[in-house]
Write a structure and sequence with these properties.
- By secondary structure, the protein is of the alpha/beta class.
- The chain contains 9 helices and 13 strands.
- The strands form 2 sheets. The protein has a 9-stranded mixed beta sheet with strand order 5-4-1-8-9-10-11-12-13, sandwiched between helices. Strands 3-2-6-7 form a 4-stranded mixed beta sheet.
């Protein structure tokens, strides 16, 4: 059986050099999950506009299962600068994501970030969804200034079993919690796995009192958009596939590096990455 994963969050067109690329963390994650042999179901929203209709068409062609509602706001967009920083348009369709009726026990994991939780509408419905399902929760903190708060970070961490952050986000957590030690952080929030990504230097993985590090092959970075989401998908699929932790870290890092070496988040992963987890 393929791992079945719910991916909750935003659909956004990333404007890179003025050119639109379909993205958003939840969609990017789902795209890579399917390439790695999983079955992703995307829960999101778009506007009733040209971008929204285009997004629905592309997602259908991707073969990603979708529970995507039309919102009264326009489809999300974000201007991406040369450093990979985002200027996110707000309000947008992802502020109002409807939750479908889902069968308990039908899914292995739920993925979420923090951006879509900026609206109380989403936060209430997402919390209810997690409480109603017997499912592991993967949190990609994915902080985008100013679209987060201490309350959202703490509430999200308390719902999660698995967490992934980058170095800047780990520093934010340390500032908010006064917890400096990754294992102390894991104990406090009762996490099974915790990963800190470090760009081209790879990532650190913490689990069961152990730490591993892996550095991916050297690449020429073209566009970092979506690289962190690809890491998260590899990380999640590795855990669900019950492969050794060093291989979990390897597939996440190599998936992220492959995406960073191309423009746009939705590239076809190289066979050497895909073959590690194809089921």
């Amino acid at each position: 059986m393929k791992p079945r994963i719910l991916s909750y969050g935003e659909i956004i067109f990333d404007l890179v050099g003025g050119r639109p690329f379909l993205g958003g963390a939840a969609l990017n994650f789902a795209w890579v999950v399917n390439q790695l042999g999983g079955e992703a179901t995307l829960i999101s929203a778009v506007g009733n506009d040209d971008f929204g209709l285009e997004a629905l068409s592309i997602i259908e062609n991707y073969g990603i299962n979708g529970h995507i509602n039309f919102s009264g706001h326009p489809t999300g967009t974000a201007i991406v600068d040369s450093d990979g920083k985002f200027d996110i348009a707000h309000p947008a369709a992802w502020n109002q994501i409807e939750i479908p009726d889902l069968e308990d026990g039908a899914y292995d994991l739920l993925y979420m970030g923090t951006l879509a939780q900026m609206s109380s509408f989403n936060r209430e419905r997402l919390t209810h969804l997690i409480q109603s399902l017997s499912v592991s929760v993967f949190l990609d903190l994915n902080l985008r200034h100013p679209f987060y708060s201490k309350e959202i970070i703490f509430d999200s961490l308390q719902m999660a079993n698995i967490v992934k952050v980058n170095l800047e986000e780990w520093q934010e957590i340390k500032n908010l919690t006064s917890i400096e030690d990754p294992f102390g952080f894991m104990d406090y929030f009762n996490l099974s796995h915790f990963a800190i990504t470090m760009g081209y230097k790879g990532a650190r993985l913490f689990f069961d009192g152990q730490e591993l590090q892996y550095r991916p092959r050297k690449i020429t970075e073209v566009d970092p958009t979506g690289a962190g989401d690809a890491f998260s998908a590899g990380f999640a699929m590795g855990i669900l596939s019950e492969i050794p932790e060093i291989n979990i870290l390897k597939v996440g890092c190599e998936a992220g590096a492959a995406v960073a070496a191309n423009r746009g988040a939705h590239m076809k992963l190289p066979n050497f990455v895909r073959n590690q987890l194809l089921l």
